[in-house]
Structure to design on (376 residues):
């Protein structure tokens, strides 16, 4: 079918591999409106530098102290390929397609040099290299509800760590991806992202990294020795158990017990193991739990903290190969309303207290006493 024939469109420096021309046209419009500029290479920023990392080759390191939430740099997608396209063509056809796609880029070597396991040999299947690059270096990106493999050459150079220093955030309005400091980064510390899901235990992480990317991880979390690894795994497993416990408490309507488990243990473990891209969702849950338990002051405080986290980290992804979350601007707006409403209630309560004349208070007390006596 003609509509399913992979279609090419080259705009500025982005190559699109789509399944039909209407999607191509949609993406082209995004590119037209985005006024795409060549991204500045990370080395241009004084806060970052490229240097040799032992056993890893080149990596990006912090040139100075970088606070959590800082946008480190931004990279433009060079290839955007519909995830379904490999199913619509024969493998050799797909490779030729990708080879042509890379060839249309102003700097095809930006993409081809990303292959770590395959070196181009004359006469070798054209496109094998590009196929390898796309399968091991691309990020999941959703545009207009369609999933793509997106290739960002500068970001692809960032090495993996199970406890990374950075996160990424895809912008479907201009097809760029940002790299954001996940925590405070010290000068000389490497900028890393996680290629695997957050929360996996040591063996599960190693297995995934070996199978998908062909390397054994020697990051701080993986090389701390058997005792440290066992302790980290136990904390990760405890988080899973605790989530179930909190849900069980809630089902029984035991809000205070659920809050105690959440605040007393779950939150601490999530922070220790860096299991969440940001704390926004946890704070939001706690705000709602406190509201349900009748503690408005705590609810307001958590809702404000949730909003602050979401305003910095909204839409980030901690995972390289994972799905990019849909734009959550709906939820951030909802949270703003929630904070406003809670805040309004608190203010009204304070004002009522301030306005209440002393005499009235006494009278209420008297009435209560009278009622008590009457009950007797
Ligand atoms: Zn590791």
């Amino acid at each position: 079918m003609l509509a399913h024939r992979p279609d090419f469109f080259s705009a500025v420096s982005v190559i699109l591999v789509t399944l039909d021309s209407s999607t191509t046209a949609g993406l082209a419009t995004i590119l037209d409106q985005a006024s795409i500029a060549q991204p500045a290479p990370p080395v241009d920023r004084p806060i970052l530098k490229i240097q040799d990392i032992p056993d890893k080759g080149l990596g990006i390191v912090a040139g100075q102290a970088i606070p959590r939430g800082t946008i480190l740099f931004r990279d433009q997608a060079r290839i955007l390929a519909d995830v379904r396209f490999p199913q619509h063509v024969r493998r050799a056809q797909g490779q030729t397609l990708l080879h042509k796609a890379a060839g249309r880029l102003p700097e095809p070597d930006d993409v081809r040099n990303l292959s770590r396991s395959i070196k181009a040999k004359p006469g070798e299947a054209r496109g094998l290299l590009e196929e390898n690059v796309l399968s091991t270096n691309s990020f999941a990106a959703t545009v207009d509800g369609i999933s793509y493999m997106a290739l960002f050459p500068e970001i692809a150079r960032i090495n993996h760590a199970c406890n990374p220093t950075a996160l990424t955030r895809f912008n479907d309005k201009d097809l760029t991806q940002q790299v954001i400091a996940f925590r405070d980064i010290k000068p000389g510390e490497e900028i890393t992202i996680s290629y695997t899901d957050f929360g996996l235990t040591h063996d599960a992480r190693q297995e995934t990294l070996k199978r998908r990317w062909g390397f054994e991880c020697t990051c701080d979390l993986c090389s701390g020795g058997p005792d440290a690894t066992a302790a980290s795994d136990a904390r990760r497993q405890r988080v899973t158990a605790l989530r179930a416990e909190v849900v069980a408490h809630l089902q029984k309507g035991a809000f205070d017990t659920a809050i105690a488990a959440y605040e007393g243990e779950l939150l601490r473990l999530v922070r220790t193991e860096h299991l969440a891209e940001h704390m926004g969702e946890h704070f939001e849950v706690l705000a709602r739990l406190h509201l349900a338990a009748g503690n408005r002051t705590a609810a307001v405080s958590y809702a404000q903290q949730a909003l602050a986290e979401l305003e910095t980290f909204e839409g980030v992804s901690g995972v390289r190969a994972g799905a990019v979350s849909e734009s959550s601007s709906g939820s951030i707006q909802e949270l703003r309303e929630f904070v406003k409403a809670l805040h309004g209630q608190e203010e009204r309560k304070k004002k009522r207290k301030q306005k209440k004349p002393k005499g009235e208070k006494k009278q209420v007390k008297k009435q209560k006493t009278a009622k008590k006596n009457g009950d007797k």
